[in-house]
Amino acid sequence: MGVSNERGLIVSWDDDVTVDERARATEAVAHAVAHGCVIGDRENVGGYAHAPVSCAPTVFPRRAYELARAVSPRFAELYDAVSRDDAFMRNALKGAIKNDAFTAALWRVYEESGGQAGRPRAEVGVLRSDYMLDAPSGLPLQVEVNTVSTSFMALATKVSAMHRHLARWSAKGGEAVDLSGVPENEALQCAGDILAAGWKAGGSKGKIMMVVQPHERNMFDQRHISQYIFEKYGVHTVRATLAEINAEGELRDETLTFQGDDIGLVYFRAGYTPTDYPTDGEWAARLMIEKSNALKSPSAAMHLAGSKKIQQKLAEPGVLETFMPEHAEEMRRVFAGLYSLDGEDAIKTVELALSNPAGFVLKPQREGGGNNLYSDELRARLEQGGDLSEYILMQRILPPAHQTLTVREGDVKKIETLSELGIYGSYLRVGDEVVINKHGGHLLRTKAASSDEGGVAAGYAVLDSPLLV
Ligand code: ADP
Ligand code: MG
Ligand code: MG
């Protein structure tokens, strides 16, 4: 391991990192910091650090990327349609509502705010549909669709720009470089544009409110979006935690106000996980937001529609087809095997999983990474028995491995990795009319092959971009 004398750029590297790779990593970090691909420092409160990144894009088949990109807007439409079908959601989620306190609490917010009748006319979606390349079939198989608090639109955009820069930078002779394999990434702009469009659809009222976690480290990813919105549209975004909203938010008639300002649109970058609700006060804030006439990205209904259980239910024969008769066939191409642990199906599903625990993932109704069970843990949970309806079982997708030069907190490592492609979507429905539904940029998250989960913030993964071949 060596030690750098370049302050603030790379700090250390493994023995197998070459001089050229060290120079590349240094250039990557310099570009990342200079262009705002930055997160809060893990150790020092008030400090900043470059985001964990790969120092070159990772190979991803163009055909799989194109299919994922083509099919993703259909999923935005699908999940919005599901969110508007009270009976379907009620039935699909009943086991999860019974056995999972978080799903139950979110369902209560939906009901107490008036269910479907209580929803504003418009739904504003910043979604991300995630895929892993299934090595045997060459197809991108969908891991999940995120309908709430999708992140990294800004940092992904910066990483794509950084990789394009590095491609030119490393052409030693100064020759022209073909960048068609490293697509430009407009995720930041798409997120800002759709939120602004939503704010306008809500009557151009007051400010946008971004609901954030206390002690957020990914604030630059979020603030890039609010700065973009302010610069392009002149709209202010106020940041608030659920606790702050509980203390300083109010409903005047049906208008949500915070610290005296009217709020036209609420954009959630928090509120997706039980730890975001340490007391009843946070749930009271969520309910107040939901009862208000502010548009929400997402509504509680759309948040619930993004549940793992709904994903599994849609995979059952004929179900997707009722929602998306014209597109179901194409959409099913990206479905991985999904199995119910509800009711009578549970016995068969448990048998299937125990016959090959390494071939499956056991998923509770959670978001944000780090919640799934694999192999031995999966076996242990299934053998323990009891009511398993808060879980679903999913085929384990096996993507091809790559060697990746990564840099995290200034430490350069070459590791064996697996990647997950995220396709962002911008979605706006007003009344029954889908006004905007389009591809909204992309993200590749690349994690150590040895890690089951792939959280960038959790420290398992780096931000990356696809090299289309
Ligand atoms: P979350 O909503 O918490 O992000 P995910 O379903 O995306 O839940 O699972 C988290 C991570 O676990 C994924 O990013 C991926 O790395 C891994 N994972 C999830 N499902 C599968 C699967 N079917 N096959 C392989 N890995 C998976
Ligand atoms: Mg998720
Ligand atoms: Mg995920």
TrEMBL record:
<dbReference type="InterPro" id="IPR037013">
    <property type="entry name" value="GSH-S_sub-bd_sf"/>
</dbReference>
<keyword id="KW-0479">Metal-binding</keyword>
<feature type="binding site">
    <location>
        <position position="144"/>
    </location>
    <ligand>
        <name>Mg(2+)</name>
    </ligand>
</feature>
<comment type="similarity">
    <text>Belongs to the eukaryotic GSH synthase family.</text>
</comment>
<dbReference type="InterPro" id="IPR005615">
    <property type="entry name" value="Glutathione_synthase"/>
</dbReference>
<dbReference type="InterPro" id="IPR016185">
    <property type="entry name" value="PreATP-grasp_dom_sf"/>
</dbReference>
<dbReference type="GO" id="GO:0004363">
    <property type="term" value="F:glutathione synthase activity"/>
</dbReference>
<dbReference type="InterPro" id="IPR014049">
    <property type="entry name" value="Glutathione_synthase_N_euk"/>
</dbReference>
<feature type="binding site">
    <location>
        <position position="447"/>
    </location>
    <ligand>
        <name>ATP</name>
    </ligand>
</feature>
<keyword id="KW-0547">Nucleotide-binding</keyword>
<feature type="binding site">
    <location>
        <begin position="394"/>
        <end position="397"/>
    </location>
    <ligand>
        <name>ATP</name>
    </ligand>
</feature>
<feature type="binding site">
    <location>
        <position position="420"/>
    </location>
    <ligand>
        <name>ATP</name>
    </ligand>
</feature>
<keyword id="KW-0436">Ligase</keyword>
<dbReference type="GO" id="GO:0000287">
    <property type="term" value="F:magnesium ion binding"/>
</dbReference>
<dbReference type="GO" id="GO:0005524">
    <property type="term" value="F:ATP binding"/>
</dbReference>
<dbReference type="GO" id="GO:0005829">
    <property type="term" value="C:cytosol"/>
</dbReference>
<feature type="domain" description="Glutathione synthase substrate-binding">
    <location>
        <begin position="208"/>
        <end position="305"/>
    </location>
</feature>
<feature type="binding site">
    <location>
        <begin position="363"/>
        <end position="372"/>
    </location>
    <ligand>
        <name>ATP</name>
    </ligand>
</feature>
<feature type="binding site">
    <location>
        <position position="146"/>
    </location>
    <ligand>
        <name>Mg(2+)</name>
    </ligand>
</feature>
<keyword id="KW-0317">Glutathione biosynthesis</keyword>
<feature type="binding site">
    <location>
        <begin position="148"/>
        <end position="151"/>
    </location>
    <ligand>
        <name>substrate</name>
    </ligand>
</feature>
<feature type="binding site">
    <location>
        <begin position="456"/>
        <end position="457"/>
    </location>
    <ligand>
        <name>substrate</name>
    </ligand>
</feature>
<protein>
    <recommendedName>
        <fullName>Glutathione synthetase</fullName>
        <ecNumber>6.3.2.3</ecNumber>
    </recommendedName>
</protein>
<feature type="binding site">
    <location>
        <position position="374"/>
    </location>
    <ligand>
        <name>ATP</name>
    </ligand>
</feature>
<feature type="binding site">
    <location>
        <position position="445"/>
    </location>
    <ligand>
        <name>substrate</name>
    </ligand>
</feature>
<keyword id="KW-0067">ATP-binding</keyword>
<feature type="binding site">
    <location>
        <begin position="269"/>
        <end position="272"/>
    </location>
    <ligand>
        <name>substrate</name>
    </ligand>
</feature>
<feature type="binding site">
    <location>
        <position position="308"/>
    </location>
    <ligand>
        <name>ATP</name>
    </ligand>
</feature>
<dbReference type="GO" id="GO:0043295">
    <property type="term" value="F:glutathione binding"/>
</dbReference>
<feature type="binding site">
    <location>
        <position position="367"/>
    </location>
    <ligand>
        <name>Mg(2+)</name>
    </ligand>
</feature>
<dbReference type="InterPro" id="IPR004887">
    <property type="entry name" value="GSH_synth_subst-bd"/>
</dbReference>
<comment type="pathway">
    <text>Sulfur metabolism; glutathione biosynthesis; glutathione from L-cysteine and L-glutamate: step 2/2.</text>
</comment>
<feature type="binding site">
    <location>
        <position position="144"/>
    </location>
    <ligand>
        <name>ATP</name>
    </ligand>
</feature>
<feature type="binding site">
    <location>
        <position position="453"/>
    </location>
    <ligand>
        <name>ATP</name>
    </ligand>
</feature>
<keyword id="KW-0460">Magnesium</keyword>
<dbReference type="InterPro" id="IPR014709">
    <property type="entry name" value="Glutathione_synthase_C_euk"/>
</dbReference>
<feature type="binding site">
    <location>
        <position position="128"/>
    </location>
    <ligand>
        <name>substrate</name>
    </ligand>
</feature>
<dbReference type="InterPro" id="IPR014042">
    <property type="entry name" value="Glutathione_synthase_a-hlx"/>
</dbReference>
<feature type="binding site">
    <location>
        <position position="222"/>
    </location>
    <ligand>
        <name>substrate</name>
    </ligand>
</feature>
<dbReference type="Pfam" id="PF03199">
    <property type="entry name" value="GSH_synthase"/>
</dbReference>
<dbReference type="Pfam" id="PF03917">
    <property type="entry name" value="GSH_synth_ATP"/>
</dbReference>
<feature type="binding site">
    <location>
        <begin position="216"/>
        <end position="218"/>
    </location>
    <ligand>
        <name>substrate</name>
    </ligand>
</feature>
